[in-house]
């Protein structure tokens, strides 16, 4: 698959939604950029943590500048930690030009999980509403480990009516050492997002990074990639091929 | 008698003095139920305004001074107080408009706009144990005084007294907003630092007005 080159410097990435991480701590914000960067090498990810002079707190000027840096015209999602970070971000929005403000959203989502999900969505070229939805999907992520320990809740069980069967399904075995950990999961989600059809991995939405990661699938696990959509065959085949290739890992 | 640019500048200078003087007290109040940075942050913010007062162009209005305070606090105060007070002064500046002098009703309108700005920004309500619990009684008292025909200085005196009573009344409250809300019931028994700084600032406004009137 297409693999964008990493960028040395954060500026708005043409055609992609930008993301600003607002934290009381500069190190938290910078750490989040590093973390999300693994899965979103080309999206504009900007850290706006701490005060202007490096103390704990949030800075109107850093947040305002961060929004400007992240904005390539496709919009900016702003993720915040504790209360006053949100107040600072809201104040920064008030001071933006009207046309810029309409494409900046403060997202109510957990900073780490939501930030990573938003970054992957932005990397895939999703629009602002989709990036925001990806971040919001992380709300309560810790408690919705979704499919349960076997991760197979969505696969049709024995005796289920034939109507539940997928239009197209492929069963493959994960071959790479670490299974569907963060980076391969992100590759899978990015690929799935390039297809309009809904595709599932063991019954879980293949376009949701958090859902895929929460399956906890490791090397040797059997994975069913399926689509109920009659036009979903190409998507299923592409994802199966990616998984069978070991995501470029040993 | 209305309050003009001299009053506005005096208010800011007195605010900076009183916040510096009460810095440790605000830090202590905030440390008891918050993150302990309120005194430090407010002091930094108001000290940053002081040199800018000298650069105000001739013909500046009270509204211009309020706007200068707003933008400086927003940029220099790292905690929640920056956006909250910044928004308050900004909305107050809008209410003051380009008037060279503010009479009783105009002062009451400035305070009401400032309070509304804080409510809008912080989404706190009365009784949440926040600065709103000092602001709202102050605005109510200011509006009552203004409608009784009090002059601007008397309106501010009424606001200051009510803000102090409001700040004191936050002591038994359980916090429902801000960092103190993480403490739940344990936040009761401590005065809210934002309500305290509100009372200090409104008293400074009143003191500056008395000084103007006496001059």
Automatic annotation (TrEMBL), chain A:
Residues 142-166 are annotated as: Disordered. This is Phosphocarrier protein HPr. It comes from Agromyces ramosus. Transmembrane segments: none annotated. Residues 16-142 form the PTS EIIA type-4 domain. Homodimer. The dihydroxyacetone kinase complex is composed of a homodimer of DhaM, a homodimer of DhaK and the subunit DhaL. The keyword Kinase applies. The keyword Transferase applies. Residues 167-250 form the HPr domain. Pfam families: EIIA-man, PTS-HPr.
From TrEMBL, chain B:
GO terms for molecular function: glycerone kinase activity. InterPro entries: DhaK_L_YcgS, DhaL_dom, DhaL_dom_sf, Dihydroxyacetone_Kinase. Keywords: Kinase, Transferase. Residues 6-207 form the DhaL domain. The keyword Kinase applies. The keyword Kinase applies. It holds the Pfam family Dak2. GO terms for cellular component: cytosol. GO terms for biological process: glycerol catabolic process. This is Dihydroxyacetone kinase DhaL subunit.
């Amino acid at each position: 698959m297409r693999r964008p080159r990493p960028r040395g410097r954060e500026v708005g990435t043409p055609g992609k939604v930008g993301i600003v991480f607002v934290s009381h701590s500069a190190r938290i914000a910078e750490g989040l950029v590093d973390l999300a960067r693994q899965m979103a090498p080309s999206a504009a990810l900007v850290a706006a943590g701490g005060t202007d002079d490096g103390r704990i707190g949030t800075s109107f000027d850093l947040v305002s500048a961060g929004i400007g840096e992240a904005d390539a015209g496709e919009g900016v999602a702003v993720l915040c930690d504790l209360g006053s970070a949100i107040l600072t971000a809201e104040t920064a929005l008030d001071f933006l030009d009207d046309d810029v403000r309409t494409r900046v959203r403060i997202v109510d989502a957990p900073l780490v999980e939501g930030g990573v999900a938003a970054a992957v969505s932005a990397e895939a070229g999703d629009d602002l509403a989709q990036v925001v939805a990806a971040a919001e999907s992380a709300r309560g992520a810790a408690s919705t480990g979704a499919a349960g320990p076997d991760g197979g809740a969505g696969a049709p069980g024995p005796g289920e009516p034939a109507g539940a069967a997928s239009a197209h399904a492929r069963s493959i075995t994960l071959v790479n050492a670490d299974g569907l950990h963060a980076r391969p999961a992100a590759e899978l989600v990015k690929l799935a997002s390039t297809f309009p059809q809904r595709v599932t991995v063991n019954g879980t939405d293949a376009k949701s990074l958090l859902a895929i990661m929460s399956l906890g699938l490791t090397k040797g696990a059997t994975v069913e990639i399926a689509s109920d959509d009659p036009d979903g065959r190409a998507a299923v085949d592409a994802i199966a091929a990616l998984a069978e290739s070991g995501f470029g890992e040993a | 008698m209305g309050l003009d640019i001299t009053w506005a500048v005096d208010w800011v200078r007195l605010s900076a003095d009183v916040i510096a003087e009460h810095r440790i007290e605000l830090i202590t109040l905030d440390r008891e139920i918050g993150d302990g940075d309120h005194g430090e942050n407010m002091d930094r913010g108001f000290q940053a305004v002081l040199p800018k007062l000298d650069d105000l162009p001739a013909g500046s209005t009270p509204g211009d001074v309020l706007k200068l305070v707003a933008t400086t606090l927003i940029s220099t105060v790292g905690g929640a107080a920056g956006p909250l007070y910044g928004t308050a002064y900004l909305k107050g500046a809008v209410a003051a408009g380009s008037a060279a002098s503010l009479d009783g009703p105009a002062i009451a309108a400035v305070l009401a706009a400032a309070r509304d700005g804080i409510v809008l920004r912080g989404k706190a309500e009365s009784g949440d144990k926040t600065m709103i619990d000092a602001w709202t009684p102050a605005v109510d008292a200011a509006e009552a005084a203004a409608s009784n025909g009090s002059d601007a200085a008397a309106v501010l005196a009424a606001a200051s007294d009510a803000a102090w009573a409001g700040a004191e009344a936050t002591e038994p409250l359980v916090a429902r907003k801000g960092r103190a809300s993480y403490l739940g019931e344990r936040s009761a028994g401590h005065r809210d630092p934002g309500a305290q700084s509100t009372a200090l600032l409104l008293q400074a406004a009143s003191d500056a007005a008395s000084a103007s009137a006496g001059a």
